[in-house]
Amino acid sequence: MDAQGRGRADDIDPADQWVLNPDTGEYELRLAPSAPQSAVPRPRKAGGPDAGARSGARQPGGAQAGGTRTRSATAAPDTREAPDTVPGPRRRRGAPAEPPPGRRRTKPKKSKGKKVLVWTGGTLAFLLVGGSTAGYLYYQHLNGNITSVSDDGAGTGGFSKDRAINVLVIGTDKRTGEGNDGYGDSDSVGHADTTILLHVSKDRSNATAMSIPRDMIVDIPDCPTTQEDGTTVTIPGTAQTRFNNSLGQDNRTPSCTMRTITELTGIEVDHFMVADFNAVKTLSTAVGGVTVCLEKDIDDKKSKLKLAAGEHSIQGEDALAFVRTRYSVGFGSDLSRIGLQQQFLSSLMRQVKSDDTLTNPKKLLALAEAGTKALTVDSKIGDIQKLAGLAQEIGKVNTKNLTFTTVPVYDNPDDKNTVLMTEGKAQQLFRTVRGDVSLTEVKKKEAEAAKKKEAAKLEGARADAADVRVDIYNGGAESGAAQETLLWLQTEQGVTKSSQLGNASADVARTTLAYDPDQADQARKLADLMGLSASALKPAEGASETNSQGLPAMVLTLGKDFAGAGVPLDGSAAADLDVEKNTADQQVCAA
User: Fold this and answer.
1) N or C, which end of the chain has less CB nearby within 10 Å?
2) What does each C-alpha distance from 158 to 122, 207, 382, 430, 458 come to in angstroms?
3) From the CA atom positions of the chain, what is the Rg in Å?
């Protein structure tokens, strides 16, 4: 059964299986259990069954024999015939009997314990309903919808309320579900077709959704992967290949995509969520349509999207066609499609958070069904309670402070079908995210005040590069970083009076430049060359040291934040980042 049909009883929409009891004023549930299917390829050993297929028999209690994915057990279906009318509530022990004839019944108050928690975190929305017996049954039902697989130790071990959160949202090109085999490669193993790294700030005031181009050339590391029989097999890495091969190819699972992201960006990922084509169709339908905007007419034969210029509310097949369109927008590349996807996701989140959705029980229940069935998550968040906890944290961010951006790339001169990362710009973006710095204007005034104070250090004359004397130490950067920096300064920047003296006495988190006040002109010049922020400059009497020529030299200590020679270290100036970005509260029209 396809994902759209799962969770239905006799072709009844799950949202329609909640019936209002006129005696209590609350909704009560009539429900048949569902059987989810996964968008993620199953790991297998060489010669085993297809990675996308489900393995054999279930153990008692709903466990799958030898499998790595977990699923909460779902209660067996009630085979008794449902009554035509909803029975009245049972009288609790000690409660008063029915009032005598002629006396008006007092309408019961709605339970204060009934809560609805709504979350939007990139492409997915889901909610938890609780506080009554029916709510508990629905809680169990939603648990049964969720599919989880191991993160194979690639994640942090779970999010925490007292630090920033990083969630990897992956949309695969796997064609599971009714009608989806007509889109492109029906035999796809499920590659990482659409990937967004969602970073939520420590104080929950802002978030960044960073798209990773699927055709970007990266190095995929070795990936230890749990197999269906519980053993672990290391899938060999691949150098210089498309990013989308980090999932599906060679039986790679989402944990391998997590490892690839961490290797690429230096950002440690807490959790992953994976969805297939049906997620777009069911979520957009659940909210009653998603508003999108086009600057021109589109008639795309490949994606089957046909829309006139202007605004449209799309759902189902049209929504899927919209996010798959590439040849009719921009330059006809995957980068143009990323822009459409970001527009769609922004609009979806606005719709989910709108009063039209939050005050509509039928839409909320439809979202719960669609969201949980669309998900394959890591086992650390493989149940509703854990998902709800993550939901509450992500939901604190206002859409106006959620920024969408894309890793900067340029066309690969050796292969027109792939792109290469623009190293300097990309590393600056990664440092900004790692440093938990907002890409929005949420803290503009405070940032500007701090920037003005620090900028005073950079005001004044600059020495010539040939007159800059500096000793370089490695204080926690990658091995060889000090020697690499020395060569770069001497051969490319003309700083010939420089030396590298090995490791610092202790590792430091951030790169610093210490100097005497009378060396300020040299410090400013070196800061310009290396992209050092004013906060990295540490003037103090006696801060310099005597170099091998017996002359005072500044001390440059490369910290753990050092990303490489020539890569700027002033990532705190997020407003100056040379990357395309827009916030989720804006309606952008695709050109």
Assistant:
1) C
2) 18, 18, 11, 21, 41
3) 28
290: which residues sit within 8 A by CB, 6+ positions away?
A: 284, 313, 314, 315, 319, 344, 347, 348, 351
Please name the residue that has the structure tokens 């926690």.
Answer: 476
Q: What is the rounded distance in angstroms from the CA atom of residue 57 to the CA atom of residue 62?
A: 10
Q: How many Å apart are CA 327 and CA 333, to the nearest integer?
A: 7
- The pLDDT value recorded for residue 181 is 53
Q: Model pTM?
A: 0.66
What's the pLDDT tens digit per position in 184-218?
A: 545 556 899 999 999 999 999 999 999 999 999 99
Using DSSP bridges, classify how beta strands 552-558 and 469-474 pair: parallel, antiparallel or unpaired: parallel
Q: Is the pLDDT of residue 436 over 80?
A: yes
pLDDT per residue over 269-302, tens digit each?
999 999 888 888 998 999 999 999 999 999 988 8
Partners of 115 in the β-ladder: 130
Dig out the tokens for 7 from the structure.
Answer: 């969770």
Nearest to 150 by CA among 383, 376, 379, 375: 379
Q: Is residue 516 a contact partner of residue 540, using CB atoms and an 8 Å limit?
A: yes
Cα 533 from Cα 512, distance rounded (Å): 9
The total of other beta-carbon atoms located within 10 Å of residue 97's CB is 6
Query: Residue 511: which residues within 8 A CB-CB, separation 6 or more?
Result: 475, 477, 532, 536, 556, 557, 558, 559, 561, 562, 569
Average pLDDT value for the chain: 77
Half-sphere exposure of 246 (CA within 13 A, CB side): 34
Average pLDDT, integer, range 488-497: 93
Cα 67 from Cα 45, distance rounded (Å): 13
- What are the angstrom distances between the C-alpha of 153 and each of 150, 255, 579, 580? 8, 8, 32, 33
DSSP 153-198: T-S-SS--TTS-EEEEEEEE----STTGGGSS-TT----EEEEEEE
Integer angstrom CA distances of residue 462 from 326, 466, 510, 567: 48, 11, 24, 20
Residue tagged 């239905």 (tokens): 8
Tokens 């405070």 correspond to 446
Tens of pLDDT, residue by residue over 10-53, are 444 444 454 545 555 554 555 444 445 566 766 554 444 443 33
d(CA 424, CA 420): 12
Residues 6+ apart with CB under 8 A from 78: none
DSSP 302: T
Q: Is 468 left (phi over 0), alpha (psi -120 to 50) or beta?
A: beta
